[in-house]
Amino acid sequence: MKKLDESLLSDMPPFSKLSRPQIREILDAATPQRYEAGVPVFSEGAPVERFFLLLDGHIRVVRTTPGGDQVIALHIAPGQLFGIGAALGRTTYPATAMTADECLALAWPNRLWLSFTERYDGFATETYKVVGERMGEMHNRIVELATQQVEQRVACAILRLVNQTGRKVDGGIEIGLPITRQNISDMTGTTLHTVSRLLSGWERDGIVQSERRKITVTAPHRLVLLSGPAA
Amino acid sequence: MKKLDESLLSDMPPFSKLSRPQIREILDAATPQRYEAGVPVFSEGAPVERFFLLLDGHIRVVRTTPGGDQVIALHIAPGQLFGIGAALGRTTYPATAMTADECLALAWPNRLWLSFTERYDGFATETYKVVGERMGEMHNRIVELATQQVEQRVACAILRLVNQTGRKVDGGIEIGLPITRQNISDMTGTTLHTVSRLLSGWERDGIVQSERRKITVTAPHRLVLLSGPAA
DNA sequence: GTGGATCGTTGTGCTGCCGCAACATCGGAG
DNA sequence: CTCCGATGTTGCGGCAGCACAACGATCCAC
């Protein structure tokens, strides 16, 4: 296995305050993992044994209801820790982490969590900051689901994806991971039919441009308008 | 000001592993506060300056949308820490904390957070556990809002209140804080009209019994049935 | 007691969104 | 090349729940 380079981690928030030798130690303790698209990294209810850092690719955090409905709680972008149930005293994962595309991640056994937080100053603070941000994001989703119409929710979801994974291409900004209408409906609590209709409409209006499993936003500002109150 | 007794804290999770002298120190650093019903303890967007422990009463964590809609994210019961933005690296409160009834709380300035976590073993772990639980609860709410019908959501909300604040009285279990139809609609993302209709129906069916600002569940098992899938 | 604010109930009409259904298109496996 | 599963589109009917509206009940301040 080829050695991982320290520069991999030095730009990432949880590690940015650490010295090179410290990063070296952390890297040496990690197990690199490759996952193909559409496979679970860990599953809801499974015992929490490891925590992860996503190096490349995108992860969907998914929950499945007894009734079989799927809800996508959030997306993980490269550079973020995930599966950090250990930090919150959990013994089982609260949700399933599914790869959206091909992913590369580092994994550490849970027992290292404690020593990381003790040994590396700033590590705990930085990761709890991430937890705080994710909580804020979930909070936003709740407000969104509780108060907004479907059209606004879908617009919000797409804007969020654009912000998190957007790539500038000519003619607009493209969402950086493969995404289906079904996926979007799972994010917004609606049906793929309604999403399809909305996107068709927006495409007619020149706001988005979409192909199979790909969406490009051509007029972000107009999408922002749609995401707000109907007024 | 009369001295607070150590037994106040000794049963509460974040402090349960501490010795009496340690609890004494913590208590001596605290400012006790009394709030009447319906007032904000802190407001969304305000700078995070203190964190709190609720001794008595109930707190609603509320978010208000630009459009004026209110959403109640969660309730805080006695014995729980709240306003712990400091632990998550936040500089402003993400939501407003509103008293639901008369409340008694202890407050500490933010700068003590760090020394608490350093000095008192188990304090950080226990509080992050609470964070984890709250996150799980929010996650549940998202799934609920995204997949369930209004009737099921309202049933869920009431069951949650019963679990968190329920008091056994003859004829059923009473929700331990004053609550209006409007409050429930703010928790479930619906209108007070719909909640009123549902409760009227349930009262006819003998599932609940309600007065002004008070709800008593007389047949919890039937409510559980309603909260599940329509099947 | 009186007035006003808060809280609750109930009826009516409308509509946004879902459920169902049928079909088009794409891409990979063999 | 063919078949099949995954994905996307579109039409249509129905209904859950919202908006609007009007009224009743309860509590508090003065």
Question: What does it look like?
Answer:
Two copies of one chain form a homodimer. Chain A has 231 residues and is α+β, with helices and mostly antiparallel strands. The first copy, chain A, has helices at 7-10, 20-29, 111-119, 123-147, 150-165, 181-188, 192-204, 220-227, and strands at 31-35, 40-42, 50-56, 59-64, 70-76, 81-82, 96-99, 103-109, 167-169, 172-174, 208-211, 214-217. A four-stranded antiparallel beta sheet of chain A has the order 1-8-3-6. The longest helix of chain A has 25 residues, at 123-147. Chain A is globular, with a radius of gyration of 19 Å. The mean pLDDT of chain A is 93. The A-B interface holds A 63, 65-67, 69, 71, 73, 85, 87-90, 94-95, 125-126, 128-129, 131-132, 134-136, 138-139, 141-143, 145-147, 188-189, 228-229 and B 63, 65-67, 69, 71, 73, 85, 87-90, 94-95, 125-126, 128-129, 131-132, 134-136, 138-139, 141-143, 145-147, 188-189, 228-229. Chain A binds a DNA duplex (30 and 30 nucleotides) through helix 7.
